[in-house]
């Protein structure tokens, strides 16, 4: 795979799950954003916002910028291609601890299972989301949009919990004495 990248929207193009387009380095994620339908949507303003000062704070939107193709199995496109594997996607910013707990929690897994994706797991690893028990075709056929919806829900839950804490006087210096969201 080397210096190539693939997005879920390309997985089934021409019937080949390994059709790719050239990119810079193999550690570089796709320079695009998952849209609400699970596809990719290039947006220069999102790219600029992610590199601006404060972009790693939870104030910026949490979404996936693309897939880390160097983390895909080398067997893709061969007879030895695994049916399911882990796909690593790159977050738009650092994930807050509250967000991580919700993303990795049992509610996220059961939500995906209820929406037709049993056995799919989510794990935050630094600025990556590791989506286990899946493949590029499954992501392209709807799982990516479910993950995008889940991330929107997580972000809304965290914002709502923070607003409640702030309204109840648990913000600022007194935050340590207040209970965490959840």
How does this structure look, described?
- There is one protein chain.
- The strands form 3 sheets. Strands 5-6-8-7 form a 4-stranded antiparallel β-sheet. Strands 1-2 form a two-stranded antiparallel sheet. The chain has a two-stranded antiparallel sheet with strand order 3-4.
- With 182 residues, it is α+β, with helices and mostly antiparallel strands.
- Helix 2 (97-104) crosses helix 4.
- It contains 4 helices and 8 strands.
Residue-averaged pLDDT, rounded?
74
Strand content: 15-25%
Number of strands: 8
Q: What pattern of helices and strands is seen along the backbone?
A: EEEEHEEHHEEH
Intertermini distance:
41 Å
Lateral strand order in the biggest sheet: 5-6-8-7
Provide the low-confidence segments as ranges.
Answer: 1-57
Principal-axis shape: elongated
């Amino acid at each position: 795979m080397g210096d190539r990248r693939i997005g879920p929207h390309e997985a089934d193009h021409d019937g080949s799950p390994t059709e790719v387009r050239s990119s810079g380095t193999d550690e570089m994620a796709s320079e695009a954003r998952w849209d609400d339908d699970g596809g990719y949507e290039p947006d220069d303003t999102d790219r600029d916002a992610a590199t601006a000062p404060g972009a790693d704070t939870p104030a910026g939107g949490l979404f996936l910028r693309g897939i880390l193709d160097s983390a895909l199995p080398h067997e893709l496109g061969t007879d030895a291609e695994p049916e399911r594997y882990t796909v690593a996607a790159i977050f738009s910013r650092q994930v807050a601890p509250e967000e991580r707990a919700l993303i990795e929690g049992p509610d996220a897994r059961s939500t995906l299972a209820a929406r037709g994706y049993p056995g799919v797991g989510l794990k935050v690893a630094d600025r990556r989301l590791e989506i286990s028990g899946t493949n590029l075709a499954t992501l392209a056929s709807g799982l990516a949009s479910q993950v995008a919806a889940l991330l929107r829900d997580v972000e809304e839950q965290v914002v709502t919990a923070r607003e409640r804490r702030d309204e109840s006087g648990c913000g600022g210096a007194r935050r340590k004495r207040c209970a965490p969201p959840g």
